[in-house]
């Protein structure tokens, strides 16, 4: 098993032990100080002031026991709650399951983040999932986020990617 999956399984075990609602995205939606404290008690923080940084920036920067750097997002927006509710188990190997967000939610997370590598990832997801994506769900979740971020041009960029993937 690769280190990234092993790291995800470590986080998953910690979350399940606490009975937290979660899903693996490229991080994980959780919420507030008790979560931060539990994660930092179990995993090495990547910053000297990891707790303060997490509470201020809503992301816990930790390292798995195998040394994989992980960013754990502290959920705050309704979309994040919806993404966690829609999460499902994904089998990565016989008997090895990781709870992940849907392809649609991953596209929304990445389009909202809007980094160059996120747009490349979106293209790959759109091609792999061509014809199977619930585009109405994507737009229902993404449009309000892009309005908050004031980046309507990202909607056109995503529309172009989805159109190309369907062609």
Quick summary of this structure?
The chain contains eight helices and five strands, in the order H-H-E-H-E-E-H-E-E-H-H-H-H.
Helix content class: 55-70%
Strand arrangement within the widest β-sheet reads 1-2-3
Classification by helices and strands = alpha+beta
**Beta-strand content estimate:** 5-15%
How large, in whole angstroms, is the Cα Rg?
16 Å
**Number of DSSP helical runs:** 8
Largest sheet: 3 strands, antiparallel
Could you give the distance between the termini?
35 Å
Shape: globular
Whole-number total of structural domains: 2
Overall pLDDT metric: 90
Task: Spell out the helices and strands N to C.
Answer: HHEHEEHEEHHHH
Low confidence ranges: none
* β-strand number: 5
Features:
three-stranded antiparallel sheet; alpha+beta; 167 residues
How would you describe the overall organization of this protein?
With 167 residues, the protein is an alpha+beta fold. The mean pLDDT is 90. The termini are far apart. The radius of gyration is 16 Å and the shape is globular. It has helices at 3-17, 32-42, 50-57, 78-86, 103-113, 116-128, 135-149, 153-166; strands spanning 44-45, 59-63, 69-73, 88-93, 96-100.
């Amino acid at each position: 098993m690769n280190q990234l999956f092993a790291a995800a399984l470590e986080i998953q075990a910690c979350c399940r032990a606490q009975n937290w609602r979660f899903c693996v995205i490229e991080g994980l939606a959780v919420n507030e100080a008790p979560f931060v404290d539990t994660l930092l008690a179990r995993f090495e923080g990547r910053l000297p002031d990891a707790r303060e940084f997490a509470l201020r920036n809503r992301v816990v920067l930790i390292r798995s026991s195998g040394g994989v750097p992980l960013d754990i997002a502290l959920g705050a927006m309704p979309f994040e709650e919806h993404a966690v509710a829609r999460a499902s188990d994904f089998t990565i190997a016989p008997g090895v399951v990781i709870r992940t967000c849907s392809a649609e939610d991953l596209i929304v997370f990445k389009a909202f983040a809007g980094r160059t590598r996120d747009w490349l990832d979106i293209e790959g997801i759109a091609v792999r999932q061509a014809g199977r994506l619930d585009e109405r769900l994507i737009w229902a979740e993404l449009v309000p986020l892009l309005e908050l971020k004031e980046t309507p041009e990202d909607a056109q960029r995503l529309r172009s990617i989805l159109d190309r993937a369907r062609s």
